[in-house]
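Troubleshooting: if your tokenizer reports a length mismatch, compare your output against this known-good record of 330 residues.
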Amino acid sequence: MTVLDKKSGDMEPPKRTSRLVRGEKLRDSKKVERIPIKVINLDDSPKKPDWLRIRLSNSDKVSEVKKILRSHKMSTVCEEGACPNLNECFSNGTATFMIMGDICTRRCPFCDVGHGKPNALDPDEPKNLALAISKMKLKYAVITSVDRDDLRDGGANHFVECIDAIRTTSPHIKVEILVPDFRGRMSIAIEKFSKSPPDVFNHNLETISRLYREARPGANYLWSLKLLKEFKINNPLIPTKSGLMVGLGEKKDEIFETMRDLRDHGVEMITIGQYLQPSKSHLAVQRYVHPNEFLEYSKYAKKIGFKSDACGPLVRSSYHAEKQIFETAV
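Known-good structure output:
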């Protein structure tokens, strides 16, 4: 498995050996070679259990969705993030759209999205996104993005332009946005979203606070909680949502504590799924969580007041998102 080198209590990031080239996407070992805590590969990773085996589909619907996406120059986190549910979702005509390009300014070692210096925003993207969604005849759309720390507002205004374009083309659609943390730009982002709010505001904590330095370099646990809380204060009628991964070395009690933190900050919807290592260069899976443990998380979510939860080995933040919002409304 992968272990983390912690010889220094406050390890400094390695010095850069070369400048990033705009538009060049770094993957796998090249992506994570400069993170503050080094990822070292060993060979004793746990064996993937049977409950994580998935069926691949070669249905015409999968090909049709990919054709629509490519014709409108759209990326999806389903593809870029190597989601295990891609075939199921594409077969059902759904996808989680990823805006602002496919190059992220951060280098989280759990994530398969490429890192680098992003290209400029495409001014036609909101229109193309709206057309793709219209052609797919969606009633519910999930929009996420790469982190864009290079932009003054973190990309908040581009999100709003996409929401407005989608609703102009498909007036009856519901839109969920899965946003980054807008590091240093929270007030700007919340102000923009409050003028054109989504139907669901989603921001993933991803993991427990103890593992943030290892799993989410550049992010801050308390900042993410504050973003969710501040949005809810400004938009009390809009459901807020967050997602967690398990299998990174957290303890069960730490997941319960994180769930309570989310409820204390007004979050009403939660997803919890198994972390899967995208490559040997990424953080290793410390353990595969049994389905019975996910049932415990689901029961606890209901006990402490979440209106909707999705907890299971293959659950991802936007998995069956339209069903979750229906549960919240009931």
